[in-house]
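Annex B. Sample input.
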Amino acid sequence: MPQVLRALLVVLLVACSSRPPHFTSPSPARLSNPSNVIYVVKRKWHVDIGFATADLQPPLASLRADLPLARYLLFGFGDRHYLLDHDRGFGGMLAALWPGPGLMLVTGLTASSQAAFGEDNVIEIQLTAAQARNAQAFVWESLAATGNAVTPLLTGPYEGSVYYSASREYSAFHTCNTWAAEVLRAADLPVHTAAVEFSGQIWRQARRISQRQRAGSSDTN
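Annex B, continued. Sample output.
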């Protein structure tokens, strides 16, 4: 198999195996209202979507019980076989790019996303109450629920993280970053989701939205 294709397969899968938080001193400057905010968090090649736990609405708010100390919850999507298989040979990587079961990783943070991942790796986008509700509804529908409840599958790869089964399939054309774009799209934000496989594709779109919001806020002051 050509080296370029091999590298692409590795990037697509490793991209959706997110790195753990690395806490730093947060900046004292806060530019946005803490309510109705969606957080777009870049974890190397992977993008998470986050909310303050205080802003979670039912039924997604029920996840607070699984991570009771968390002030923020970050949600990431990935390939179930790849994330749980400890023998990640190239054959396993190749198989993972065919449509298959997805997996949700929920990370609870006791400090802000900026403190965990750095200011440059977090974008805040303000939402209306309806937009926040729609985004959270999409995240909830991405979890495999039984009787309107979700149960942790197992403990995540690092402290303060939990795996849940996903209702959506993972593939080379529906990656962790495609899913993140779909969450923003569900919030009626101007985001395209087609052919979004890499973090840079969603990151650039989210940054433009945030910049426009800031510019609009400056114009009204």
